Amino acid sequence: MAITNKQVKFNTDILDNRRTQTRIQVYIPKGLHEQPVISRLVSHYGITVIIAAAQVSANVPECSCFELELRGTASQIESALTYLDELDLEVLHQSNSEEDGW
Asked: Whole-angstrom distance between the N-terminal and C-terminal Cα of the chain?
């Protein structure tokens, strides 16, 4: 029995819409402290962002560090991580296969 393109698209959509989560550390340089980097993850990409830890200070010479838990669909999280990459931010993934997914 052949699988049609429509069935493949439907199966791909199911995977893209599956809820998942991942933990990251993101370092935001002082030059971007005035930009709404984290709030854009919510407003532009529709994910839930939980700030698990943060190291922010007016006296930080170089950057601030945030430990974030990102929750959303796989495609939303992928798009959000692409956005952070496009800003040239250092992002460290902390998740493992047992943590990802629900």
From this structure: 32
Report DSSP letters for 27-92, one per residue: EEEGGGTTS-HHHHHHHHH--EEEEEEEE--TT-SSEEEEEEEEEEEHHHHHHHHHHHHHTT-EEE
Sorted by where each starts, the structural domains of the chain and their CATH numbers stand as 19-93 (3.30.70.260)
Classified as helix, coil or strand, 17 is coil
In tens, the pLDDT along 3-40 reads: 554 544 455 555 567 889 999 999 988 888 888 999 99
Instruction: State both tokens at 88.
Output: 């040239």
Question: pTM here?
Answer: 0.73
